[in-house]
Structures are given as structure tokens and as C-alpha cells.
Automatic annotation (TrEMBL):
Protein name, as recorded: Putative NAD-dependent epimerase/dehydratase
Taxonomy, superkingdom: Bacteria
Organism in which the protein naturally occurs: Shigella flexneri
GO molecular function, one term: riboflavin reductase (NADPH) activity
Signal peptide start-end: none
Record-annotated NAD(P)-binding domain positions: 12-153
Pfam families in UniProt: NAD_binding_10 (PF13460)
């Protein structure tokens, strides 16, 4: 069986969860990682040998499309009050570059799926900041892309 090289674009590569993904992929000889971050200094060192670093912002469409070229999978570890706008930018770049597979980290509670009293607390304490996460999920679900939405606590 032949090993096929996969190109993985990691958006928000300086994030805490992204660090774990980068480390898990570091020893995979069939994976080439493109680490995309606004502040590359936040990317955990040492950098894996199977990676390249690109400084950029997902809202810069030209930079994002350039980084998207030749990618097989996009892993998005983004955050912010404009997360839905960021998600739409990622979706547009993926479609423009014919990239089909998206893994996007959002948040627990965006579907009011948390049981019992925790859902009340979650909505009261964190409810407003979750709205862009939910809008991002809606955009991803409607995108036509092959996607996985991760919702860590």
C-alpha cells in the first residue's frame, strides 16, 4: 500500500488546541503542515520538521487563498467576536481553491445541548459570546463542504 502525502493547513496555529494537533501530526511522514497564524511567535517551538510557517490573517482573502493552494484538509482553530465572519472567509477561500475537507473548532453549548442546570448557567454566563460561534456553525453546515465541528468544553 502506498502512503499518500496529505497537506494540512492549520489556521490559528498559535492557539492552545492547535498546539496539540500540531504535535500529533509532527511525526507523521505522510503529513505536511502549513501553520498559519497572525502572530507566528505564539506557535509552540520547536517547529515540527514537517511544517512551514505562514504569517497571515484569515480575513486577508489574498493571503488565505495563497495559503490554501494545494491543501487537502483545513483545520481551523479561530476565535473572536467576528468568528462567523472568519468562518465565511475560510469557506470562501476553500471553495475558491477547491479544498473540500474542513475541521473547525467551535464551542460546547452552541446548540443548547448541555443538559440540566449547566445549560442555564452556560447561557447566562457565556451566552452572548457564543452567538458568533453558532453563526459560524450555521455557515459551515450550509457550506456544502465535508466538515467536522469540534465543540470542546
Amino acid at each position: 500500500m502506498r502512503n499518500i502525502m496529505k497537506n494540512v493547513l492549520i489556521l490559528g496555529a498559535g492557539g492552545q488546541i492547535a498546539r496539540h494537533v500540531i504535535n500529533q501530526l509532527a511525526d507523521k511522514q505522510t503529513i505536511k503542515q502549513t501553520l498559519f497564524a497572525r502572530q507566528p511567535a505564539k506557535i509552540h517551538k520547536p517547529y515540527p520538521t514537517n511544517s512551514q510557517i505562514i504569517m497571515g490573517d484569515v480575513l486577508n482573502h489574498a493571503a488565505l487563498k495563497q495559503a490554501m493552494q494545494g491543501q487537502d484538509i483545513v483545520y481551523a482553530n479561530l476565535t473572536g467576536e467576528d468568528l462567523d465572519i472568519q468562518a465565511n472567509s475560510v469557506i470562501a477561500a476553500m471553495k475558491a481553491c477547491d479544498v473540500k475537507r474542513l475541521i473547525f473548532v467551535l464551542s460546547l453549548g452552541i446548540y443548547d445541548e448541555v443538559p440540566g442546570k449547566f445549560v442555564e448557567w452556560n447561557n447566562a454566563v457565556i451566552g452572548e459570546p457564543l452567538k458568533p460561534f453558532r453563526r459560524a456553525a450555521d455557515a459551515i453546515e450550509a457550506s456544502g463542504l465535508e466538515y467536522t465541528i469540534l465543540r470542546p468544553a
